[in-house]
Amino acid sequence: MAANAESNNVDDGLTLQMVRDSLIRQEDTIVFSLIERARFPFNSPTYHPSYGSVPGFCGSVVELFVKQTEAVQATAGRFENPEEHPFFPDNLPPSLVPHYKYPEVLHPAAMSININKAVWDMYFNKLLPLFVAPGDDGNYASTAARDLECLQALSRRIHYGKLVAEVKFRDEQKDYEPPIRARDRDTLLSLLTFADVEEAVKKRVAKKAMTFGQDLKLGDGGEKGKYKVDPAVVSGLYGDWVIPLTKEVEIEYLLRRLD
Amino acid sequence: MAANAESNNVDDGLTLQMVRDSLIRQEDTIVFSLIERARFPFNSPTYHPSYGSVPGFCGSVVELFVKQTEAVQATAGRFENPEEHPFFPDNLPPSLVPHYKYPEVLHPAAMSININKAVWDMYFNKLLPLFVAPGDDGNYASTAARDLECLQALSRRIHYGKLVAEVKFRDEQKDYEPPIRARDRDTLLSLLTFADVEEAVKKRVAKKAMTFGQDLKLGDGGEKGKYKVDPAVVSGLYGDWVIPLTKEVEIEYLLRRLD
Hints:
The structure is a homodimer of 259-residue chains. The first copy, chain A, has 259 residues and is mainly α. In chain A, 58% of the residues lie in helices and 0% in strands. In chain A, helix 2 runs antiparallel to helix 5 (140-159) and helix 9 (195-212) packs across helix 10. Chains A, B: It comes from Hibiscus syriacus.
């Protein structure tokens, strides 16, 4: 227990307030990214499995785009930050910028957790059809760029579950240790679930969708009831996918926390 | 005059209302992109002329990042859209996605106008130090990605001057032709200037910075007077740079409009 109690008091800057503030700030980023994707219609050629004519690459425009853009971002050091997770982690080029020493707050096992396959599937197969208009305006590159912004914002938020779990673990170590040792996912899930907090988050993101997605005019408060992204879709996104997927990350992290 | 009168009535879908709506919508994109850049501190290593260690490339992380990302976007067809202008137009790879037929509303000479050097200079040397906090948090790739979003949003808005000029030219062709033929920039500038409209735009973008940049909470209207990007900086950005640079594009376009 001595080692655990010690790690419990490390002065690495991680606080519950910091984690909360980041989660709240990330909501704005997610809502902005959805509003910006909704500027473009569905643009189905972006997603056709063989629309592009790229020698040696089999996939859609968006797959090629995300893969290549992640490679560029990797050379600029994006994935050195433990909060960032690539969608195509295989064969990423190394960073060409000098190493920055990010604070080490997570258990090293955190590095092995990446549920971006689930984030990708959720975004393209469930969320996207709910908030973009049908149609084709030719802007496939801009569409893919906006999709990447949404994907990265959602991925960052969901994988932030590692930090949420770490801070909760430190606060209530004696509650978490038995179910971790027993690999009891149900108990961990109930320890991680606060229904009233989740309801407040869903209400707040809906309010952000209303506030940031209104057609703002001078002199009045904007056209009531007309938003660039339906607030109900944003609160549903959180309730149905962001919160559950975050908990999945939290549980995966906790199960490795005592390794 | 017959040919001109004819071109005056082309049914290509360009209307003053459409141009206005696009300009207003683009304000939201610009404000969002500034707020998102302000998530990160200045992060000066992003801009150091020789910070990265890239064989065969001499420049800053952000230059390399923008150049490489534009290449990826070019393969996905971004610059096929006449509203998009690259910052590094030399040696861009060809689009690998099938050609989309964008409506041809502009005079072909529009293609030769690209003032992104001025946009780049304004953004990095004037605007950026006004709205980001000092400091270094290591997120150079994310910083460069956010810079690119700001640059592209500002570039699109400023080069939209081509469409603004085209729609104004069609509306008031007899007023515009004499100064175009005389290459009289001053008269063109005064024809293009509506001080009351400009004041309204500056007020509206400040209001957007307040509305989109507040810390939104449930139950109240957010903390008054505390915004992620200073609204005065956003209205100054429009008054000092976006509006004047747009007019520069408009004048360059008009001077070629009768070629």
